[in-house]
Amino acid sequence: QVQLVESGGGLVQSGGSLRLSCAASGFTFRHYVMNWYRQTPRKERELIALITSAGRSTSYADSVKGRFTISRDNAKNTVYLQMNSLKPEDTAVYYCNAAHELHSDEYWGQGTQVTVSS
Asked: DSSP strand E in the chain: where?
């Protein structure tokens, strides 16, 4: 069955770094745009980074641009989010999302908590 399994979340001090991973299975990973979203109790789920199916293009929300880097390894069916210079306002549950490049199939991971202490 389809699975997206995030890992790498945790507690880090302000200014620190974390690397999130999302391992995919059960679908043809290389045909999917991969996205990272985040959500806090006070805000709607926010798209923060995406990478196209072949990895040629990326896009970032202004709130993370210059600090976060999304990448993917299609041989390993895995997408990554390198998060540097973390701030307390980055505290959220981070979700991995797969969206087919041509049709409406879409999958979500279960989320991983990132907490940045000041």
From this structure: 3-7, 10-13, 18-25, 32-39, 46-51, 58-60, 68-73, 78-83, 92-100, 106-108, 112-117
